[in-house]
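User: Predict the structure for this protein chain, please.
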Amino acid sequence: MSDTHKQLIAKLAKELGPDTAQHLVSCFADSTAKPNQVEGVLVLLDELSEASAKVARAAIDSFPELQRRDRLSDSLAWLDLGIALAESSGAIGLKFFKESPLVLGLIEQPSVRSLVLKTALELAEQDANVALEFLRVAPEVVTVLSPDQLGAWLEIGLELTQVDFVVALEYIRQIPAVARVLPIQDSRAWATFGLKLISTNSFGKTDYFGTIEFLRTSPLILGDLEDPSVRAKVVMVGSLLAERDPGSGIAWLSESPRLLRGVSNEGWRLKVLQYGALVAERDAETALAYLRR
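Assistant: Here is the predicted structure, written as structure tokens:
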């Protein structure tokens, strides 16, 4: 047994006991998919310990769960991401190592897991919170978006962190839902609609209730509209209304499937929405009355 193997067993045994440590190192050493995994895990655990000894212990504690889900082959990329998160925030690093074995267990294809971990690492270099939220929804996101679409959706989330952090995180959480009903070119307008619903409560504090409700429920409402082009226009009209009166924007969104079902075809629906948008630019009450008639 090499010195490297002995060092890794000793490091793992402090948290897991000698038998479990020996078994894990044997699994690392026997991996044909990832040669030199023992050396890599030892180096990365040392690096993680420098960032946070507590987070490093959490990572070691999570190895048996990673093994139980047959994900030890992802250990190097997993630790690399954990280091990036821990360097930003110890609390986020702890959450990552606690939650990630389950997340990775839900993603079957190794290539997709590699993409998720690589993408999360790129996000962590810009914002650790966004990276963690993406990882949490990744098992669902990868069933909705192709790899070449992922970056554009996440870029909007990063842009939103510069505008409002609460909205940015909720946007990331809702990507799987909204991506089912809107294409990427309309998602920024959807998020902007939500931003316009932020208000100030009676105590002078920012109130996100309307915005969060919008981000969580609007994908389901938009899904009731059959035509993708109509969905985009509904968002546009709602955003124009919300700019002048948030209540009108919310009312329009909730009523739009019922109101538009009364219009005979897609062409007429688009005409109604186009004229409604022109009116909404000037007066929300008049526009809403027109759309309801």
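The chain has two domains: 1-144, 178-293.
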